[in-house]
Structure formats: structure tokens, C-alpha cells
Amino acid sequence: MQPRLHAELPADDLVSSERTGCRGGLGSADSLTLSPSPSVSHTHAAAPARRPLWAAAALLLCAAARGPAGREDTPKITVQALPRFEELRCLESNGHLEVQARLVDDVGDPLSAAPIELARGGAPVQALACGSRAARVRTLETDAAGLLCVRLIETPAAGSLTLSFRGDTLHLPAQAELALQPEAAAQLHLAFDAASLELNLDQPEQRLSLLLSGEGAASDALPAIVLQLEDGGQLRNVSTRGWLRSGNSLGFSVDSGELGAPGPARLLARVKNSTRPEEVAEAVALRSATVQLELAAVTPNADGVEVQLRAQSRAGVPSGGWIDLSLDEQPLASGPLLSGSASVQLPSGAAGATSLLARFHSDDPWWQPGEALPIDLGSPAPRGPARWPWLVLLVPIGYVCVRALQRPGVRQPRRAARRPLPRPPAVGRSGAAEPAPAGWSGTLIDAHDGRPIAGARVTASLPSLRDEGRGASTSSDAYGRFALPPLPEPIPEGAQLVVSARLHSDFQRPLPPQGRVDISLTSRRRALLGRLVRWARAAGPPWHRGPEPTPGEIAIVALRRGETDTARWAEGVQAAAFDPADVDHERETAVRAGEPAWQNAAHSEQLQKRPANEKLNPTDRSS
Q1: What gap in Å lies between CA 320 and CA 322, rounded to an integer?
Q2: What span, in angstroms and rounded, lies between the C-alpha atoms of 309 and 318?
Q3: Phi and psi at residue 66, in whole multiples of 5°?
Q4: What local confidence, expressed as pLDDT, does residue 184 receive?
Q5: pTM above the 0.85 mark?
Q6: Of 130, 242, 489, 552, which shows the fewest CB atoms inside 10 Å?
Q7: In the beta sheet, which residues pair with residue 189?
Q8: Cβ distance 31 to 15 under 8 Å?
Q9: What is the C-alpha radius of gyration for the chain, rounded to an integer number of angstroms?
Q10: Residue spans of the chain under pLDDT 50
Q11: Cis bond before residue 490 (omega within 30° of 0)
Q12: Which overall architecture, per CATH, does domain 84-179 show?
């Protein structure tokens, strides 16, 4: 702290240095020396802060030269710092004027707990400390950093405000004027660290972070920030904790239970009570959870074995999907998942199998399948204590008792057994074989949810131009049913069965024999996701590490590797998969146009030939 010397001496006590031969070196008093009088008991010296140390020493030497050291009229020196106000600002906050300032001494050290008075036009001004709800006060104090932040009460934005510090034993008074014209508040820009956030609800806590930029990011005191979740058109606040700032990154934690059920949503982080668009951060949040299966019951019946299973996760019961049972990696049967339960009917040949595996398949990518559940049909679930051994022991005892009570009766002669009467022939039955089916008929359903597909075009296409007129075409009705008329024999080789629907991938197979044909189609939305998963598995690490990669994971890996085209394709797949808008042929073609090359040529050829639709079940009606 640089001292300031303040002298208060009577005029009679000032004599020329010509007479005393002593120079004080005190600036304007440089040509004067001290001549203390007997009536003076206290000297309060002041000099400019240019040469305080040697000036004080010169003053002491002059005082010593004027008389003995033990005299009572020896001058006493008081050293005081000269404080000043810095960083004065006037801002507008929530309809009130906010004044900020910093009080420091002459070397820049902050003055803490210094009382400050505010006045406007000579009249005291009422104010509140920023963030305080206390009663109105006129005098406030600086904090540990010398900062003063007050909110003016009922003060118009006109004129000027006077900030005063009365001083104390170590500091001189200080005063400053501030024009009450609010300046534009420093802008604080918020942004999530990624535009798409993968939130695994299997974890009890999610750690998120915001990136800070703009002039407001340089401030140590940041405004309050609230987190909101928009899900299904509903916007609600989300509780946060553990806020921690590191440079321009602001991290915080959220309980997974606060984020709702798995599925796409939108996260918003905004400065509290702010309407500025730059003070709002937005990100797409894909919430996912792993589904685990549990065996509920195994019930033999006339058709085979019925297996009942339950599906659950840390985030609740899956909203849809299906469960299939396989034996040695060969699928046996499947059943839809309804309200978290599924019933799968196995044929009688599967009874006693010991290596069945149950797997969950999701209708939506945010429900992730867990590990396969092994099922042993040869070892049924244990039941309660068996009672039949006791019954076996009681049967012979009861039989002896009953026989002892019975009397021998008269034997009746046996009657000849009646021969069964011949049954009449069944009506409508004949030895002739039923006529062969004519044409093709069946149903079109979605491969994942089993819903009928209406309005699809079904065509029996013939290969040559001369046979083109013999082809047949029809459309499926509201129940997904279709019927194609028969074609004259012989049907040429290369005839195709072609199905095209607006929201489902095209289907094309060799024309099966005439009869019933049930066809399952995969939606274009799921076909894009399936191609991305197969591409990642063919590419291997680092694209594929977990059980089933997501578009967001592929985009993150691509950006880290600098492959912007791959990242753009993955983001396109993600938008098509989770956007509520329909995915038709044009949109599917546009997304597939950005698909990167397959890295494994052999596997690529196999996957490119793999059908997009999963099921073709031709069944001849003839017996």
C-alpha cells in the first residue's frame, strides 16, 4: 500500500529552510522545514505519493534536528492510503438499474467490507445488494474482492449517481460519479458440447456440460441457468446439481429418473428469466435403455409348449417389440411384446430342448436389447412339494378297506360286445383331389408390428415383352389383403413377384407357385437403420464396439476421424429414423446417396444382396 502523508501545521510553525538549513523534500513543501511550537502535540503530514518513504525519513530528520528526541512536541505522522473506484458500470436487469463498482487502494489491492453510500442529486438513494431480498438500505459494503453490486429501488435512468467512501484510519475518503444510463449487458452465449446427446438411462446419473462464450463468459459470477426437457410437446424443468466450471466449460449432473422414458427429446439450457436467443442452448437427446428378459412360465399344451416371458429395464417397461426363441441359432418362433409380456408358442418337437435362447427385438432403436436369456425346457421350474407319493401309499390301503366292506354278488353272464355301426360318408367328400388353387392371394403386413399395409401395389411380372400383357397387378385393401388372378401356363422362367409401398422398402422375389402368399415388408425407416448397423459391423472397430451401434455413435466417431461425409450420412439416418415425418422413396434414396463405401468387399456383396424384407411364406392351398 503506497502511503500518503498529510500535514496540518500552523503558519507560524513554517520557517524557511534558509534559516534552518533543512529540506524536507515533501513536494510543494520541499522548500520548507518544520518548526514545532510547544503548543503543537500532533502533526498530521501529507505529501504527494511520489516519494513517500524518503520524504517521511526527511521529515523525521528535520524534527530530530529541531530538538531533543524526548521532547513532548515531537511531531507524530499518520500514513493513509488514497483509495479509488474502478470498473463502474450501470446495467439494466429485470426492469431495475444495477450498479457495479470496485473499490481499491492506490496500489490496486481491493478494500473489503468498506461501507459505501449512494446519493443522487444530494439525496440518499435506496438500494439492495444484488441477489438479496433484505429490507431496503442506503449503505452497503464491498465484498472480499472489493466489488459492490446493488440494485437501485425506484430510481429512473437519468442523471448521475454519487458513490462515496468516507474513509477510515488507514484510508482517505473517495468519491466517484456514475451516469445512470444503462449500457448493454454483456452477452453470454450457451451451447451444449454436442448437438446430439446419447443418454443411457441405465446409468443413475448423467453428466452434461455447456460451452460458454461471449463477453459474459469472462465474468466470474455467472447468472442462474435452468435446464428444461421438451418431451411429447410438453416442456418442464429438470433438477440439476454439481455445477462445476473449468475454463469456458460448465458441467453439471442430472438424475436419469428426471429424464423420463427412452426416446427422442429436446434439452434446453437457458439463462434464468432471459429471452435472448443466444442465451439458450439446445440439443437433441436420445434416451436409451437396455431391456432384460425374464422367464415367467413354461406351459405344455396340445400344440407343443407355451413360453411366457417378461421384459423390463431400469427406465420402465418397453413400449413395443417382439421376442423370438431360437435353437442352435435357428429361429423357432416369435411373439409380440404387449405391456411388457410376451407369449411364444413352440411346436411339440421343441419340447425337452435344453439350449433355447430368447432375444428381445425392439420396434424403436432407443430400447436396446440385453443379453440373450437361456431357457431349458428339459428342466421345468420347481414347484411346491409333491403330494402324489402319499396318495400312492393310501390307494392300496383304501382298496383293502373297501373290498372288506363289500359282499360277494351274483355274477351276471357276459354280453357280447356290440360292433360299432358304420359311419355315414361325409357330406361333400369324394375320392377326387381338390382343385389346384388359381392365382395368388395373401396379406401384406409390417415385419415388426404386424400391422396390415394398405394401398401397396402387388404385381406378377413376366420377363419378356411378348408376355407383358399376361402379367397381373392389384392393390392391397385396408386389411392388407390382395388377390392376383391366375396366369396362363406355362409361366416363363424369370417371372417376379414385385410389391411396392409408399413407406416400406420394395419387395421383389421369383414368382412362387400359385396359392397363398403372405408377405412381410420392412419400413424404409428401419431399413436405413439396418443398413447403418450392418455397415458398422462390416467396418469393424472403431465403428462397431457394442452390441448394436447407433447413428449418433457413428457420427461421433466419424467427426473424431475427420470423416465429415460419413458423419453427415449418420446424422441423416438419425434424422430419418427419429423424425416424425414420413420416410418415402425419395427421402430414403437421398439418405442412401450419402452412404460410404463398404470396407469389406465380400461382406458388402452379401449384405447388399440381403433382402430388406424378412418373411415370405408361400403356402399352397391344395391338400
Answers
A1: 7
A2: 13
A3: -85, -15
A4: 62
A5: no
A6: 489
A7: 213
A8: no
A9: 46
A10: 1-2, 6-51, 69-71, 380-384, 409-413, 415-434, 467, 469, 600-623
A11: yes
A12: Sandwich (2.60)
Question: What pLDDT sits at residue 437?
Answer: 59
C-alpha cell at 420: 360299432
Q: Looking at residue 74, what is its pLDDT?
A: 57
Cβ contacts of 606 within 8 Å, gap of 6 or more: none
- pLDDT for the residue 389: 61
d(C-alpha 351, C-alpha 306), whole Å: 10
Q: Do domains 84-179 and 441-521 have the same CATH topology?
A: yes
pLDDT at 136: 54
C-alpha cell at 388: 402324489
Can you give the pLDDT at residue 239? 93
Planar angle of CA 383, 387, 393, nearest 5 degrees: 155
C-alpha cell at 154: 425506484
**Domain at 441-521, CATH homologous superfamily:** Carboxypeptidase-like, regulatory domain (2.60.40.1120)
pLDDT given at position 17? 37
Bridge partner list, 484: 440
Cell of 348: 411339440
pLDDT tens figures, 305-360: 888 999 999 888 987 788 888 887 777 778 888 888 988 888 776 666 667 889 99
**What is the CB neighbour count within 10 angstroms for residue 237?**
11
Task: Output the DSSP codes for 583-606.
Answer: --HHHHHHHHHTPPPPS-HHHHHH
Pick the CATH number of 199-377 from 3.40.50.1980, 2.60.40.10, 3.40.1280.10, 3.30.70.2740: 2.60.40.10
What string of H, E and C letters represents the secondary structure of 240-293? Answer: CEEEEEECCEEEEEEEHHHHCCCEEEEEEEEECCCCCHHHEEEEEEEEEEEEEE
Q: How confident is the model at residue 206, as a pLDDT?
A: 93
Q: Which residue has the cell 473489503?
A: 112
| Dist CA 614 CA 188 (whole Å) | 52
Residue 534 phi/psi, 5° resolution? -70, -35
Burial class, 480, CB count within 10 angstroms (exposed 0-12 / middle 13-18 / buried 19+): buried
Q: Where are the domains of the chain?
A: 4-80, 84-179, 199-377, 441-521, 524-616
User: Which residues lie across from 515 on neighbouring strands?
Assistant: 440
CB 436 within 8 A of CB 489: no
